[in-house]
């Protein structure tokens, strides 16, 4: 708040308080020549009389006490422009204290699960209930309440993991996030053969998960373009690279859609997917619980037991 605005607020508050004091004093006093409280001359039906009696002194004094309290309140709490108040209270400090208290309670609740392997947590019903609750509060906005995702948001219940589906890889994803970038190739491909080049590389990309389409003329031509532009990330056989988050193009699972139009848009304009980091928001133990629950969706209990025994 600027100095000018601060003084504006202070003066406005002072005028309002002074006005309340004056109004209270002015209306409560009796002046010489005022008629008696019973001399209003307002009489109805012969015996119904309106009086003009002042408020009791104790009632007036309560108003004055309220005004004094408001002045003390404004001096102790920040209510006068940029003045921080002698109590140094702020909503931020109040929030931080409350957050610290609640975080301490949460840490006590989650301490039993700290540093436990994800497969072990996946076999603990209480841990899984907590993990699912954390997921519903934190992750369901993007991945859906059933974790099946949507266009642009991966399905967490299948076996497709662009960044790796091992327990520690999933935990790393939750803690530190991921950022996948597919660069736009429209200008490059247009310079290598116009729209036919785009059609060819889309056809070849589709043929990687549909081998029967590999004999198509455009798919055959697209293979040459693919080998010149795409192998660095997706590999010569199209199986992707989990270190880069480059998806496997041979499994028929498409994050942004597998139609020719969707593939055309992905290749022409690129994609930029971000999984935000949750280390600061959740802390490691809660992140471990939600990662264990996510891992359990694609690893039934039998698999979890086998993984732990290795």
TrEMBL record:
Binding site for heme c 2: 182, 230, 233-234
Cytochrome c domain span: 126-209, 217-298
A Gene Ontology cellular-component term: plasma membrane
Cofactor dependence: heme c
Molecular function, one GO term: electron transfer activity
Cofactor binding mode and count: Binds 2 heme C groups per subunit.
Keywords associated with the record: Cell inner membrane, Cell membrane, Electron transport, Heme, Hydrogen ion transport, Ion transport, Iron, Membrane, Metal-binding, Oxidoreductase, Repeat, Respiratory chain, Transmembrane, Transmembrane helix, Transport
Pathway where it operates: Energy metabolism; oxidative phosphorylation
GO biological process, one term: proton transmembrane transport
Location in or out of the cell: Cell inner membrane
Record Gene3D superfamilies: 6.10.280.130, Cytochrome c-like domain
Residue numbers binding heme c 1: 139, 142-143, 275
Organism superkingdom: Bacteria
Residue spans crossing the bilayer: 6-25, 58-76
Function summary: C-type cytochrome. Part of the cbb3-type cytochrome c oxidase complex.
Subunit description: Component of the cbb3-type cytochrome c oxidase.
PANTHER family associated with the record: CBB3-TYPE CYTOCHROME C OXIDASE SUBUNIT FIXP (PTHR33751:SF1)
Protein family: Belongs to the CcoP / FixP family.
Name the record gives this protein: Cbb3-type cytochrome c oxidase subunit
Annotated source species: Luteimonas salinisoli
């Amino acid at each position: 708040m600027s100095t000018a605005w601060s003084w504006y607020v202070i003066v406005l508050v002072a005028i309002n308080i002074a006005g309340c004091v004056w109004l209270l004093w002015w209306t409560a006093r009796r002046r010489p020549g005022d008629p008696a409280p019973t001399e209003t001359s307002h009489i109805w039906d012969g015996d119904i009389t309106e009086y003009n009696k002042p408020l009791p002194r104790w009632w007036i004094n309560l108003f004055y006490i309220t005004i004094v309290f408001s002045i003390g309140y404004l001096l102790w709490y920040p209510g006068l422009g940029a003045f921080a108040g002698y109590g140094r209270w702020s909503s931020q400090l109040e929030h931080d204290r409350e957050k610290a208290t609640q975080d301490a309670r949460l840490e006590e609740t989650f301490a039993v699960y700290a540093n436990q392997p994800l497969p072990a947590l996946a076999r603990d019903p209480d841990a899984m209930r907590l993990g699912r609750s954390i997921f519903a509060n934190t992750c369901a906005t993007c991945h859906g309440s059933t974790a099946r995702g949507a266009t642009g948001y991966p399905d967490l219940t299948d076996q497709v993991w662009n960044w790796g589906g091992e327990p520690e890889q999933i935990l790393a994803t939750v803690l530190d996030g991921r950022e996948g970038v597919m660069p736009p190739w429209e200008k490059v491909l247009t310079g290598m053969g116009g729209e036919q080049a785009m059609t060819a590389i889309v056809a070849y990309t589709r043929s990687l998960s549909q081998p029967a389409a590999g004999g198509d003329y455009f798919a055959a031509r697209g293979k040459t373009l693919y080998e010149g532009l795409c192998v660095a990330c997706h590999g010569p056989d199209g199986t992707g690279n989990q270190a880069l988050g480059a998806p496997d193009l041979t499994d028929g699972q498409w994050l942004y859609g597998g139609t020719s139009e969707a593939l055309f848009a992905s290749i022409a304009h690129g994609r930029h997917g971000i999984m935000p980091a949750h280390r600061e928001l959740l802390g490691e133990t809660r992140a471990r619980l939600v990662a264990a629950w996510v891992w359990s969706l694609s690893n039934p209990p039998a698999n979890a037991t086998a993984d732990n025994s290795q």
